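Practice problem: predict the structure.
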Amino acid sequence: MKIFFKLTFLLTICLSLNFTSHAFAGVHEKLINKYIELSGLDQMLSTFPDQIDAMFSQKILTSEQPEFEKKVATIMKESFDIVLVKENLNFFLLHNTDINFLENLIQWLETPLAQKIKEEELSSSRPGSQAELLRYIADLQTRPPSQDRIAIIQEIRKQQRQGDLQDFASFEKCRLMMGLNFS
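Answer:
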């Protein structure tokens, strides 16, 4: 009989902990959804394909390999799945934030300064802004930069890649000297 009461007591504790963790997860998920809404991430993600178009239109003009850039742009647009991105974002936030952090972040996002920043970010990704950028790009296509300017842009890109490689090599040297393993 004592074993029955002990098992019943233990089962009751386990069930109450389980319900508590589900309630906690529900609050956490609601805060995550509120954060995503207040931050404007939903709207920004929905404009991503248009931003890819705008970014690659300019890049194609000055690239040494324009056909390659077109293929990369096409692959990026075709592989972008907004539903999957949102699911991964929710999963990441659920596992890498706590309720207190999200509450503080939401509180800040409700301030006038944060709302102004959000408005400016969203306005830069609105169709009107995108159209303005695309008009600029169309102007570039009808009046492309001179060959000298294109050569300068290509040289800057080469230098940036070399700098990135040097930064990576320095980081790797430091990591190895310190005995750090990130894999």
